[in-house]
Amino acid sequence: MILHEVLRLYPPIVMLARHTDKADASGKVTIPAGVQLMLPVLLLHHDVETWGPDAKEFNPERFAQGVSGATKGQLTYLPFRPKKLEKFLRQQGSHGNSYKLFHGDLTEMKAATREAMSIPINFSNDIFPRASPFYHKALQKYEIMSKNYVFPKPHGRPVKRLIARGLASLEADKWSKHRKLINPAFHVDKLKHMVPSFYLSCGDMLSKWDEIVGNEGCCEVDVLPHLQTMTSDVISRTAFGSSCEEGRKISRLQSEQTKRTVGEDRSIHIPGYSRAQYGGDDAKEFKPERFGDIGVAKGAYFPFGWGPRICIGKNFAMLEAKMAIAMIVQRYSFQLSPAYSHAPPTISIAFVALIYLWKFLDWVWFTPKKLEKILRQQGFKGNSYKLYYGDFKEIGRITGEALSKPMEFTNDIQPRATSIYHQATKKYGENNFIWFGPRPAVSITDPEIIREIFSKNNVYLKPSGNPVARMFKGLATYEKEKWAKHRKLINPAFHVEKLKHMVPAFHASTVEMLNKWDAIVPDGGSCEVDVWPHLQTMTSDVISRTAFGSSYEEGTEIFQLQRKQVELIIEAGRHMPVPGWLPTKNNRKMKEVVAEVESRVLRIINKRMKAMEAGEPSSDDLLGILLESNAKEIKEHGNASGMTMEDVMEECKVFYFAGQETSASMLVWTMILLSKHEDWQARARDEVLQVFGKRKPEYQELNHLKVMNMILNECLRVYSPPTTLTRFTHNEANFGKYRIPAGVQLVLPVLAVHHDKQLWGDDATSFKPERFAEGVSKATQGQPKFIPFGSGPRVCIGQNFAMLEVKMAMVLILQNYSFKLSPSYSHAPHALITLQPQFGAHLILTKL
Ligand code: HEM
Predict the structure, then answer these.
(1) Fewer CB near the terminus (10 Å): N or C of the chain?
(2) Which of residues 727 and 241 earns the better pLDDT score?
(3) Nearest to 656 by CA among 445, 798, 761
(4) Most confident of 23-32, 394-403, 634-643
């Protein structure tokens, strides 16, 4: 009874907010979409009509028969599509101030709040004027509670940004699903086991009081911080159990974040640049005790909210409060000190704190633990989840050890290049999972399942949120309709007919590289050259020429910047993942580079658009073809089915990212393997000289090189540029006998499949181009065991481009040079987005 009465008079959440997504005409008044509805909890709790003339008196007896508040809640409208909504609300008979540009009523709200907060009030339970000063003023001015409105700033954005993924902020199906899954954690049976934690935390607090008060003494204590510490301690113990120390640290961080969030919420919101200007003392504190439990409540009594979204932790909170009060009254009596000032705070800090804490706990603990349980039930094995870090430390150690030194020259490169997965398979068998921070990654080794995952591209999506996906939007990262639209518009650029026109660019770029080699290597002599940087420059040059053609010089500068971007992404990958919005040094640098790249690409595109409008013929480069295909689509099906200029820009960036390192990787391992296997180098050269002599190869001829095809396919198999590909389960996924829950990363281990002895025979890691003597389909016998370009609808769009490019380069190299491994070559395959030679590719080049 006492607790309910306290919650009624001093509800921790004085105001609840809802937002109308659609217009609602079901009530007395039609409420348009886009209105924020404020549910004034405190005011309704103090309403004389509902609670009688003694509404503001402390009278626990009203709860003698349980909770049965029975008045109807009324609403105050807070629109935020300003002028239109103002007009509408006035038509409906509501009153309020005229909308003031951008600030709305914010200045007045802040002044009222500051004024109210400046002094305490006499001890009275009539706290509405102090606790909700602005709404109180609005009510006084416009009288009828249900017929007034105020203009706050666009509310909720800072909070929403911070709590975007937690139960409290989810909607519709996603909310029901999460609520259903989380409900058991708050079931009475589970809460029973938390009672010892309540007892211990409260015991700690009372021990501190004993120290302060002494035996049989009497002492003034500001109990508020103690109670706060105690409840935060309860959360640490109950949420994190054995990891409660880390939990405490998190709680402290949460309090700090809460302070910032609330501070930001009170300031004027300038998108992306908000500044906390104002914060009450209490804003710093995390106060779960505000969320007590009322059991069943109706109408005007809803400290925990009401309806399906009623606070999920209400039973927890009531139990906790009961335990604390019981232990305190057992040991202490207490009364107000003369120093006590009655100053109930005005805003619902606790509400923000709770949802924020919930989101964090859900992300860092409940979801990983739930996923772990389900994966283990399915027979997957892996390390136990470690709070926040998961396997991150172990991954760092394993990778560090693997990369610390080169290896013997063998093609059995998995222990070095994909050490984490290799170790996990050794320790836990094929069905294993690894924790990348709080998210598990499951390795899928069955080729049939891999094929299924590739083919269902609308079910298994690419993981989002990693630095690569953040930096490079575009075909390679889009999903569903957007991906389908872009794929359709970009496909023509990679059509065989168009590729033909790119062959001269492949030739020019290789010739430029060979000119550099000619300058290094003496005529008729040999010289050691690290060919790796040369090949990288060459493939980057190819993309500059083929993507931007006439604007090649500008393209080259852009791609140099993108190379920097890749370095920053790689650097980010060495540390625990951090959200992109955090202003870390790396994130800031990335943003700068991205902005520079984008403005330069847009400049080229604009130039091309103007040329097209002036009737100049379109170019045969990727950009020209893309713009042409886009213009055609827009002409036939309207603007909506085409790409915007930003879209085109993103795609140009993706060409570089997807096409440069991959081709360079393929080329470098081909040269290294042909250096090791000089017999195959000789066979390849024989074929080249037989077909072309020393002349420039033509497009059609490149397609008919048999030995070259065998060699290139075998190189792609043994040293596949992507060593792993990844997908993500956004919904529960069923394949084979497995049921993989949503939120799991699926690792498709390309290299492991290519080296699998069951699939390729005991000599799986031997370099044997003759496997491909009769083409890829004969070598694979229809099994999905050769996947250097992926498979299914999202198979590499540039695979023909890459094969042509690499063939052209190899033909010219073989025509002009023979090569072998230098004694200073160190074999060190390293998966850095693509498979790369960690210490370079030092070869002895001999001019022919
Ligand atoms: C040897 C060279 C290359 C290799 C090994 C390679 C490999 C791959 C792989 C494995 C995928 C599928 C990724 C996944 O399913 O998650 C892919 C996609 C893609 N590749 Fe390549 N690639 C190469 C060259 C290129 C080139 C030269 C370009 C363009 C100039 C390119 C553009 C793309 C694009 C745009 C995608 C995304 C396709 C989509 O999602 O629809 N690739 N590549």
Answers:
(1) C
(2) 727
(3) 798
(4) 394-403
Instruction: Give dist(CA 546, CA 553) in Å, integer.
Output: 12
Q: Which stretch of 73-77, 564-568, 641-645, 781-785 has the lowest confidence by average pLDDT?
A: 73-77
Q: Residue 15: which of 76, 68, 58, 57 has the closest Cα?
A: 76
CA of 819 from ligand 1 middle (Å) equals 29
Please count the CA atoms within 13 angstroms of the CA of 303 that sit on its side-chain side: 27
Rg of the Cα trace of the chain?
A: 33
How far apart are the CA of 13 and the centre of ligand 1, in A? 52
Residue at token pair 């770029």: 509
C-beta of residue 276 within 8 angstroms of C-beta of residue 268: no
This prediction has a pTM of: 0.65
- Whether ligand 1 lies within 6 angstroms of the CB of 514 is answered as no
Give the β-pairing of 829-832 and 439-443: unpaired
Inter-helix orientation angle 314-331/223-240, to 10°: 130
Reduced to 3 states, what is the DSSP secondary structure of residue 40? coil
d(CA 202, CA 812): 79
Secondary structure of residue 17 in the 3-state scheme: strand
Which pLDDT score is estimated for 751?
Answer: 97
C-beta of residue 728 within 8 angstroms of C-beta of residue 462? yes
Q: Which residues contact 257 (CB under 8 A, 6 or more apart)?
A: 162, 356
Is residue 643 within 8 Å of residue 649, measured between CB atoms? Answer: no
Q: How many CB atoms lie within 10 A of CB 575?
A: 11
Pairing of strands 439-443, 745-748: parallel
Arithmetic mean of pLDDT, 588-592: 83
Residue pLDDT, tens place only, 381-432: 999 999 888 998 899 899 999 999 999 999 999 999 999 999 999 999 988 9
Name the burial class of residue 600, with classes exposed (0-12), middle (13-18) and buried (19+) by CB atoms within 10 angstroms of its CB. middle
> DSSP assignment, residue 366?
I
Cα–Cα–Cα angle for 473, 433, 177, rounded to 5 degrees: 70
Does 796 carry a binding-site annotation?
yes
What is the C-alpha to C-alpha distance for residues 429 and 421, in angstroms, rounded to an integer?
A: 10
What six digits make up the tokens of 763? 């000599």
659 C-alpha vs ligand 1 centroid, how far in Å? 7
Start-to-end CA span in the chain (Å): 97
Q: What is the pLDDT of residues 594-625, one digit of tens each?
A: 888 888 888 888 888 888 888 887 778 888 89
> For residue 39, which phi and psi values (nearest 5 degrees)?
-105, 105
Indicate if ligand 1 lies below 6 Å from the C-beta of 463. Answer: no
Residue 581: its pLDDT value, please? Answer: 60
- Whose structure tokens read 């909310």? 175
Q: Does residue 293 or residue 304 have the better pLDDT? A: 304
CA distance readout (Å), 150 to 36, 105, 239: 10, 6, 39
Nearest to 47 by CA among 18, 13, 74: 74
- Whole-angstrom Cα distance, residue 17 to residue 440? 35
Pocket flag, ligand 1, residue 663 (CB < 6 Å):
yes
Runs of H (alpha helix) within 339-405: 349-361, 367-377, 392-403
In whole angstroms, give the CA distance from residue 531 to residue 767.
Answer: 21
Task: Report pLDDT digits (tens) over 484-540.
Answer: 999 999 999 999 889 999 999 999 999 999 999 999 999 889 999 999 999 999 999
Note the pLDDT of residue 426: 93
H or E stretch covering 777 = helix 775-780
Q: How many angstroms separate the CA atoms of 450 and 442, rounded? A: 12
Ligand 1 pocket member 728 (CB < 6 A): no
Mutate to test the pocket of ligand 1, among 475, 660, 662 (most ligand atoms within 8 A of CB): 662
> Residue 276 has what pLDDT?
29
Provide CB contacts within 8 A for 165, sequence distance 6+.
Answer: 359, 362, 363
Side chain identity, residue 183: N
